[in-house]
Amino acid sequence: MFSHFINFLRLFRNIPEQDAVIIEQHLGYRTATDSEVLFNEGEICREMFFIYKGVLRIVSTNEKGNKLTYFFLKENQFCSVLGSFNNNLAANEGIEAACDAELIVLKKQKLLALYEKLPYLKELITGITTQSLLDKIKVRNTYLGEDAATRYRNFLLRQPDIALRVSLSDIASYLGITQQSLSRIRKNMR
């Protein structure tokens, strides 16, 4: 599993074998079950996850106490609440498993130590996470201004692998519609 992470990083930069050994020594592993909370909003995020298998979601609780899904993240993506992780601030979002998941865990202190030993990793991981954030926002923005049925169709076209693995309630939350509305939309599509 750790070799999978190293191979992912090698897509973007050559990593010598001796550096790969150092990186692996700083990694952790964790499983998560469907709906398991990995990080609570209101706390300071001290972990970054690399998704080996599964889907995670970034969530926030609204004033009515309902959880809203902002983003889905899947295999070969990093997941953290970056503002909190980078700046040691309480987060407005949390992280949950949207289905069973296997994760490589990068604890902040170990990651900072790794950056000291291998300075090029900071630029590499920061570049990957920044591009991923921009991509997530771009996908999310494609749903703005569309009616609920169009948002759902676009979601199925743009993120079919996620649509097949997460709950309808999570999809409805992500698209900003009620689960009942999503059920009607799905019924009318048949």
Describe the structure concisely.
The protein has helices spanning 2-10, 17-25, 82-87, 108-117, 120-141, 148-158, 160-163, 168-175, 179-189, and strands at 28-32, 37-39, 47-53, 56-61, 67-73, 78-79, 94-97, 101-107. It is of the alpha+beta class and 190 residues long.
Structural description of this entry:
- The mean pLDDT is 93.
- The strands form two sheets. A four-stranded antiparallel beta sheet has the order 1-8-3-6. A four-stranded antiparallel beta sheet has the order 2-7-4-5.
- It is α+β, with helices and mostly antiparallel strands.
- α8 crosses α9.
- The chain has nine helices and eight strands.
- The chain has helices at residues 2-10, 17-25, 82-87, 108-117, 120-141, 148-158, 160-163, 168-175, 179-189; strands spanning 28-32, 37-39, 47-53, 56-61, 67-73, 78-79, 94-97, 101-107.
